[in-house]
Specification:
By secondary structure, this protein is an alpha/beta fold. Helix 23 (657-666) links the parallel strand 21 and strand 22 (670-671). The longest helix has 51 residues, at 164-214.
Length: 694
């Protein structure tokens, strides 16, 4: 019943009662007619024998057999009569006509009055006594006047009727009844179909329109041809569909605009507009594949600006940013259209010289180096001489992968700096002894720092911008402090540690610190939320999941205040591992956060694949917030999309109050940076901000 459509239900509702009523009425009147026909036949039989008995009296008394035969033959001529028999007082047949079916015993029975004497499927018989009539003369001679004598029975008459005609009439009556039922049902069906279509078609149009809307055809509309409640539904659906289409187009335009911005951000450096490291490495891979397939060789230049730190330290990062923009324009002006210039990060640039090797590549490198040396950067009342150390390497068919190219270029650039800066050094794509020594040095430094507990865990507090957070929210970071060496940030430390499979060990220090702090805070009834960054090696390892589960179980913690953060780049390269890690963490009650969100083309798809609870916005979205309308519009679009999915947004490295207020107005949920609180050792911050608060 549940599978029937509305049209079928209406037809069933209309036809079923009408059909039952029609069948019942026709059956009643048909069977009533059949009974009436049978009754008429019995009445006719009784009337016939009652008529025949008196007129047979004289023939029986007078013995006029010929007259009785004539009477029997005349009776048989009547419609439906198949036989007529006259018997005398002794039961002997004296006149007969037609085909007699009564047995001799039945003809000898003594009847006192007219009645039915026999009946079969094909015939019926009636009989009546022939009585001697009493005349007036006879009555005069009666001596006993007290009571008249009963008439004398002098014989009997029998009449047999054929039931074939009755059966034919009954069959005709039944056929007429069936024809009437069929005709009535056809008329009712036609009316029911018309009514069902009239009612069901508008509803089915609405159903098809809803299916079309659910399948993505937002331009679906229904004709408004109905009246009453159906007309209201049709008009309401069209208005709703129009509104949904407008909202969809508006949201689609916003998403396309944001996606276009993100596509550009994914491939370009936000500060200089040059290609970023990710896109440069992608193009380098394509160029290397072309060379290995028989294409032309090319050269790579690696540039590291000299005395850039002096500008940053003297005039601040705004001056450093302006210097990078000017240098990028300076380099771009000396290159061909087919050459590729990219900013790899910080003050490092790289140039891919297409179809250019040997002496020509060296001339370009010398030209770029001389251009940088001759340039003077002016900031307010200060003038700076810059310069660039340039490493050059040639890419040929012997090169196996881009890591060898990057390693050779980095080594050549490092040698140029060590040789006195502002010069060009060429190196082939090989791993030099210096490179192996550096690798060994980094591995031993990290292992020593972990074993001697010289890894300083720091706290980066977050502030809620839209509402009170109801507790303390902090992100954990770390740095390496070594005697006589500058501090190494967590990003640089992880970058080196991942090459030697030491990054998971650093991550575990952060995990242990966060869980232990939350356990202490729980015992003191303090509310502490921790964001813990994880490296590529931890995300791709099952051991990390087991380690987190054991750590939470040992402290009897649920993990609902623990958020593990990893970058979009990890999610791009380790998609399945990152999705499995996220699923396992949610099983433990932990949350997931994405770092550097908005810096890649696939940012929105990542929201669907791992459903994070927090996203840390890319620095490229907030760097030029004050003076760049495009950045503000892009940030607003990203915030609206994440807010629609109940994902908290976090802005990092916010160093001034003006930017902080702008972020608050845009609806960003949290911020961190110098404008919030400086980084400090985690234990110091924990004791002061958490344990001594409240």
């Amino acid at each position: 019943m549940n599978r029937l459509t509305l049209r079928h239900r209406l037809l069933l509702l209309t036809l079923l009662p009408s059909t039952l009523i029609a069948i019942a009425l026709v059956a009643y009147f048909t069977f009533s007619g059949i009974k009436t026909l049978e009754g008429e036949l019995r009445l006719k039989g009784m009337a016939t024998v009652r008529y025949l008995a008196p007129i047979s009296e004289y023939g029986i008394i007078a013995g006029q057999v010929e007259g009785l035969h004539g009477l029997a033959q005349a009776t048989v001529q009547e419609s439906g009569v198949k036989a007529a028999i006259v018997v005398n007082q002794k039961g002997r047949t004296i006149a007969v006509s037609g085909r007699v079916s009564l047995a001799a015993d039945e003809l000898r029975q003594n009847l006192s009055e007219a009645r039915q004497v026999a009946e079969t499927e094909h015939w019926i018989a009636f009989g009546a006594p022939v009585k001697r009539s009493m005349s007036d003369t006879d009555q005069l001679f009666e001596t006993n006047t007290s009571k008249p004598a009963a008439p004398e029975i002098i014989g009997h008459v029998f009449v047999e009727f054929d039931k074939t005609e009755l059966a034919n009439k009954q069959r005709q009556l039944l056929q007429r009844g069936l024809v009437i039922v069929l005709f009535g049902l056809l008329v009712l069906a036609a009316l029911a179909i018309a009514m069902a279509d009239n009612l069901a078609k508008p509803v089915m149009r609405l159903v098809e329109a809803v299916r079309g809307m659910s399948s993505g055809r937002l331009d679906t509309r229904v004709p408004t041809s109905s009246s009453g409640e159906l007309g209201i539904l049709e008009n309401g659906f069209n208005e709703m569909a129009t509104r949904m289409e407008e909202v969809h187009h508006s949201m689609q335009a916003r998403i396309e605009e944001a996606t276009a911005q993100l596509a550009f951000q994914a491939r370009h450096d936000a500060l200089t507009g040059l290609l970023n490291r990710r896109e440069f490495e992608h193009r380098l891979e394509k160029a290397l594949a072309s060379v290995q397939a028989g294409g032309d060789e090319f050269a790579i230049l690696f540039l590291d600006l000299d005395r850039f730190k002096q500008v940053n330290d003297t005039c601040g990062y705004l001056a450093g940013d302006e210097l990078l923009r000017q240098m990028s324009l300076l380099f771009q002006g000396r290159l061909r259209e087919e050459d590729t210039l990219a900013r790899l990060g910080g003050d490092e640039f790289s140039i891919m010289l297409a179809n250019c090797t040997g002496t020509r590549a060296m001339q370009v490198a010398e030209d770029i180096c001389g251009l940088a040396a001759a340039y003077r950067f002016i900031w307010q009342d200060k003038v700076f001489a810059i310069g660039a150390s340039v490493g050059i390497t040639t890419v040929n068919r012997k090169v196996r992968n881009i890591n060898e190219i990057l390693a050779a270029g980095d080594a050549a650039c490092h040698r140029a700096k060590e040789s006195g800066r502002n010069r060009v050094v060429e190196q082939e794509v090989t791993f030099s002894q210096e490179r192996r020594h550096e690798a060994s040095n980094w591995a031993s430094r990290i292992a020593s720092a972990l074993s001697e507990d010289r890894l300083l865990i720091e706290a980066v507090p977050l502030r809620a911008l839209q509402h009170a957070s109801g507790g303390h929210i902090v992100e954990l970071t770390a740095r390496l402090n070594e005697p006589g060496q500058p501090p190494v940030t967590l990003a640089a430390l992880i970058d080196a540690a991942e090459r030697y499979d030491l990054a998971p060990a650093i991550d575990r220090r952060l995990i242990d610190t966060a869980i232990a702090a939350q356990a202490r805070a729980k015992r003191r009834h303090r509310n502490l939320h921790c964001l813990v960054p994880l490296s590529r090696g931890s995300i791709g390892s099952r051991e990390t999941i087991d380690y987190i589960a054991r750590s939470l179980a040992s402290q009897n913690m649920s993990g609902n205040k623990l958020c593990f953060v990893f970058s979009e780049d990890i999610l791009t390269h380790l998609t399945s591992q990152a999705m499995e890690f996220s699923r396992q963490m949610r099983t433990l009650g932990c949350q997931i956060g994405l770092d550097d969100f908005g810096g890649g083309l696939s940012s929105f798809s990542h929201l669907r694949s791992i459903t994070p609870s927090h996203v840390k916005l890319s620095r490229s979205l907030t760097r030029d917030l004050g003076g760049n309308r495009a950045s503000t519009a892009l940030l607003r679009a990203v915030q609206e999309i994440t807010a629609d999915q109940h994902i908290h947004s976090i802005a990092e490295d916010i160093d001034d109050l003006e930017t902080l207020e702008q972020l608050k107005d845009l609806g960003i949920d949290y911020a961190q940076g110098k404008a919030i609180a400086p980084n400090e050792p985690f234990e110091v911050w924990f004791e002061g901000a958490v344990m001594r608060s409240g």
